[in-house]
Protein backbone atom coordinates (compact mmCIF):
# COMPACT_ATOMS: atom_id res chain seq x y z
CA UNK A 1 0.00 0.00 0.00
CA UNK A 2 0.89 3.65 -0.07
CA UNK A 3 3.16 4.89 2.68
CA UNK A 4 5.03 7.91 3.99
CA UNK A 5 8.43 7.52 5.64
CA UNK A 6 9.53 10.17 8.12
CA UNK A 7 13.01 10.82 9.55
CA UNK A 8 14.39 11.23 12.10
CA UNK A 9 12.12 9.70 14.75
CA UNK A 10 13.74 11.86 17.43
CA UNK A 11 15.55 15.18 17.04
CA UNK A 12 17.25 17.20 19.75
CA UNK A 13 18.48 20.73 19.03
CA UNK A 14 19.79 23.67 21.01
CA UNK A 15 17.52 26.68 21.32
CA UNK A 16 18.16 29.02 18.40
CA UNK A 17 19.39 26.27 16.07
CA UNK A 18 17.47 25.01 13.04
CA UNK A 19 15.57 21.72 12.84
CA UNK A 20 14.85 19.76 9.68
CA UNK A 21 12.44 16.83 9.34
CA UNK A 22 12.27 14.85 6.10
CA UNK A 23 9.55 12.73 4.53
CA UNK A 24 9.32 10.51 1.48
CA UNK A 25 6.05 9.38 -0.07
CA UNK A 26 5.28 6.52 -2.42
CA UNK A 27 2.10 7.59 -4.27
CA UNK A 28 3.23 9.73 -7.18
CA UNK A 29 -0.35 11.03 -7.54
CA UNK A 30 -0.22 12.72 -4.11
CA UNK A 31 -0.67 16.47 -4.43
CA UNK A 32 -1.27 17.77 -0.91
CA UNK A 33 1.35 17.65 1.87
CA UNK A 34 0.34 18.95 5.31
CA UNK A 35 2.45 19.08 8.47
CA UNK A 36 0.88 18.67 11.91
CA UNK A 37 2.21 19.57 15.35
CA UNK A 38 1.07 17.61 18.38
CA UNK A 39 1.71 19.12 21.78
CA UNK A 40 1.61 16.98 24.89
CA UNK A 41 -1.91 15.87 25.76
CA UNK A 42 -3.50 17.40 22.66
CA UNK A 43 -4.61 16.36 19.20
CA UNK A 44 -2.45 17.13 16.14
CA UNK A 45 -2.94 20.56 14.56
CA UNK A 46 -2.01 21.76 11.09
CA UNK A 47 0.95 24.14 11.10
CA UNK A 48 1.76 24.45 7.41
CA UNK A 49 0.91 22.71 4.14
CA UNK A 50 2.07 22.70 0.54
CA UNK A 51 0.48 21.64 -2.72
CA UNK A 52 2.22 20.01 -5.65
CA UNK A 53 2.21 23.11 -7.82
CA UNK A 54 4.51 24.90 -5.34
CA UNK A 55 8.13 24.09 -4.48
CA UNK A 56 8.46 26.00 -1.24
CA UNK A 57 6.23 27.77 1.28
CA UNK A 58 7.22 29.83 4.29
CA UNK A 59 5.34 31.08 7.34
CA UNK A 60 7.50 33.05 9.76
CA UNK A 61 9.99 30.57 11.27
CA UNK A 62 8.67 27.48 9.51
CA UNK A 63 9.04 26.48 5.88
CA UNK A 64 8.24 23.45 3.81
CA UNK A 65 9.94 22.33 0.60
CA UNK A 66 8.70 19.82 -1.94
CA UNK A 67 10.61 17.86 -4.56
CA UNK A 68 7.99 16.04 -6.63
CA UNK A 69 10.52 14.31 -8.84
CA UNK A 70 12.21 12.68 -5.86
CA UNK A 71 8.95 12.40 -3.89
CA UNK A 72 10.53 14.16 -0.92
CA UNK A 73 9.25 16.98 1.26
CA UNK A 74 10.78 18.59 4.33
CA UNK A 75 9.88 20.82 7.25
CA UNK A 76 12.38 23.47 8.31
CA UNK A 77 12.11 25.31 11.62
CA UNK A 78 14.56 28.16 12.14
CA UNK A 79 15.52 29.89 15.40
CA UNK A 80 13.95 27.10 17.43
CA UNK A 81 12.33 27.92 20.76
CA UNK A 82 11.37 25.67 23.70
CA UNK A 83 7.69 25.93 22.67
CA UNK A 84 8.60 24.19 19.40
CA UNK A 85 9.15 21.00 21.40
CA UNK A 86 6.43 18.61 20.23
CA UNK A 87 5.74 15.68 17.94
CA UNK A 88 5.55 16.57 14.24
CA UNK A 89 3.75 14.48 11.62
CA UNK A 90 4.06 14.79 7.88
CA UNK A 91 1.31 13.49 5.60
CA UNK A 92 0.51 13.02 1.92
CA UNK A 93 -2.82 12.80 0.17
CA UNK A 94 -4.80 13.56 -2.96
CA UNK A 95 -8.37 14.73 -3.39
CA UNK A 96 -10.88 12.00 -2.66
CA UNK A 97 -8.39 9.64 -1.04
CA UNK A 98 -7.27 8.89 2.49
CA UNK A 99 -4.42 10.86 4.01
CA UNK A 100 -1.31 8.81 4.79
CA UNK A 101 0.64 9.97 7.86
CA UNK A 102 4.30 9.55 8.64
CA UNK A 103 5.30 7.91 11.92
CA UNK A 104 6.15 11.21 13.61
CA UNK A 105 9.26 13.04 14.85
CA UNK A 106 9.69 13.96 18.48
CA UNK A 107 11.51 17.32 18.60
CA UNK A 108 13.26 18.45 21.77
CA UNK A 109 14.50 22.04 21.95
CA UNK A 110 16.99 22.48 24.77
CA UNK A 111 17.10 25.88 26.45
CA UNK B 1 -17.26 26.96 16.27
CA UNK B 2 -16.33 24.09 18.56
CA UNK B 3 -14.54 22.18 15.76
CA UNK B 4 -14.29 18.49 16.67
CA UNK B 5 -15.53 17.41 20.09
CA UNK B 6 -15.05 14.04 21.75
CA UNK B 7 -16.62 12.44 24.79
CA UNK B 8 -15.60 11.19 27.24
CA UNK B 9 -12.16 12.69 27.91
CA UNK B 10 -11.08 9.80 30.13
CA UNK B 11 -12.41 6.31 30.71
CA UNK B 12 -11.36 3.28 32.72
CA UNK B 13 -12.84 -0.07 31.74
CA UNK B 14 -12.47 -3.61 32.95
CA UNK B 15 -11.61 -6.33 30.46
CA UNK B 16 -14.78 -7.45 28.69
CA UNK B 17 -16.76 -4.27 29.27
CA UNK B 18 -18.17 -2.32 26.35
CA UNK B 19 -18.28 1.38 25.63
CA UNK B 20 -18.93 3.89 22.89
CA UNK B 21 -16.73 6.89 22.13
CA UNK B 22 -18.62 9.83 20.70
CA UNK B 23 -17.38 12.35 18.16
CA UNK B 24 -19.09 15.36 16.60
CA UNK B 25 -17.93 18.05 14.18
CA UNK B 26 -19.50 21.37 13.24
CA UNK B 27 -17.46 22.15 10.12
CA UNK B 28 -19.84 20.43 7.68
CA UNK B 29 -17.10 18.01 6.60
CA UNK B 30 -18.04 14.95 4.62
CA UNK B 31 -15.30 12.67 5.98
CA UNK B 32 -14.61 11.55 9.53
CA UNK B 33 -11.93 9.29 11.02
CA UNK B 34 -11.01 7.38 14.16
CA UNK B 35 -7.31 6.92 15.09
CA UNK B 36 -5.57 5.37 18.02
CA UNK B 37 -2.21 6.53 19.35
CA UNK B 38 -0.23 4.34 21.70
CA UNK B 39 2.44 5.92 23.94
CA UNK B 40 5.36 7.21 21.90
CA UNK B 41 3.77 5.99 18.69
CA UNK B 42 2.20 7.46 15.61
CA UNK B 43 -1.42 7.61 14.50
CA UNK B 44 -3.05 4.39 13.35
CA UNK B 45 -6.31 4.58 11.44
CA UNK B 46 -9.05 2.36 12.89
CA UNK B 47 -12.05 3.22 10.70
CA UNK B 48 -13.13 6.09 8.52
CA UNK B 49 -16.27 7.37 6.88
CA UNK B 50 -15.70 9.04 3.53
CA UNK B 51 -19.25 10.39 3.50
CA UNK B 52 -22.51 10.05 5.39
CA UNK B 53 -23.78 6.49 5.03
CA UNK B 54 -20.41 4.86 4.33
CA UNK B 55 -17.75 3.39 6.59
CA UNK B 56 -14.51 1.59 5.78
CA UNK B 57 -11.82 -0.28 7.69
CA UNK B 58 -8.49 1.32 8.30
CA UNK B 59 -5.22 -0.19 9.40
CA UNK B 60 -6.32 -1.65 12.77
CA UNK B 61 -10.11 -2.32 12.77
CA UNK B 62 -10.21 -5.55 14.80
CA UNK B 63 -12.17 -5.22 18.04
CA UNK B 64 -13.97 -2.04 16.98
CA UNK B 65 -17.18 -1.04 15.26
CA UNK B 66 -18.30 2.37 14.04
CA UNK B 67 -21.51 4.17 13.21
CA UNK B 68 -21.85 7.31 11.12
CA UNK B 69 -25.00 8.54 12.78
CA UNK B 70 -25.40 11.60 10.54
CA UNK B 71 -23.10 14.07 8.83
CA UNK B 72 -21.98 15.53 12.17
CA UNK B 73 -21.49 12.44 14.31
CA UNK B 74 -19.25 9.38 14.10
CA UNK B 75 -19.07 6.94 17.02
CA UNK B 76 -16.58 4.19 17.85
CA UNK B 77 -17.68 1.14 19.84
CA UNK B 78 -15.61 -1.36 21.75
CA UNK B 79 -17.82 -4.42 22.25
CA UNK B 80 -15.53 -6.32 24.62
CA UNK B 81 -12.59 -4.23 25.76
CA UNK B 82 -9.13 -5.78 26.04
CA UNK B 83 -5.96 -4.41 27.71
CA UNK B 84 -4.42 -4.10 24.22
CA UNK B 85 -7.00 -1.40 23.49
CA UNK B 86 -5.54 0.89 26.14
CA UNK B 87 -4.67 3.94 24.09
CA UNK B 88 -5.56 7.52 23.25
CA UNK B 89 -8.31 7.74 20.65
CA UNK B 90 -8.58 10.70 18.30
CA UNK B 91 -11.45 11.59 16.05
CA UNK B 92 -10.85 13.83 13.04
CA UNK B 93 -12.85 15.34 10.22
CA UNK B 94 -12.02 16.77 6.81
CA UNK B 95 -12.94 16.84 3.19
CA UNK B 96 -11.33 13.66 1.81
CA UNK B 97 -7.67 14.26 1.08
CA UNK B 98 -7.62 17.71 2.67
CA UNK B 99 -6.55 19.11 6.06
CA UNK B 100 -7.74 17.00 8.95
CA UNK B 101 -9.06 18.62 12.11
CA UNK B 102 -8.55 16.58 15.24
CA UNK B 103 -10.48 16.42 18.48
CA UNK B 104 -8.79 16.60 21.91
CA UNK B 105 -8.74 12.82 22.32
CA UNK B 106 -10.17 10.20 24.68
CA UNK B 107 -7.76 8.49 27.03
CA UNK B 108 -8.84 4.89 27.61
CA UNK B 109 -7.39 2.49 30.16
CA UNK B 110 -8.51 -1.14 30.08
CA UNK B 111 -7.64 -3.12 33.18
Summarize the structure in words.
The complex is a heterodimer of chains A (111) and B (111). By secondary structure, chain A is mainly β. Chain A has strands at 4-7, 10-14, 19-25, 32-38, 45-51, 56-59, 62-67, 72-77, 86-92, 100-101, 105-110. In chain A, strands 2, 4, 5, 9, 10 and 11 form a six-stranded mixed beta sheet that branches. Chain A has a five-stranded antiparallel beta sheet with strand order 1-3-8-7-6, with no helix packed on it. The model of chain A has no long low-confidence stretch (mean pLDDT 95). Chain B is mainly beta and 111 residues long. Helix content of chain B is 0%, strand content 50%. In chain B, strands 2, 4, 5, 6, 9, 10 and 11 form a seven-stranded mixed beta sheet that branches. A four-stranded antiparallel beta sheet of chain B has the order 1-3-8-7, with no helix packed on it. The radius of gyration of chain B is 13 Å and the shape is globular. The N and C termini of chain B lie far apart (36 Å). The mean pLDDT of chain B is 96.
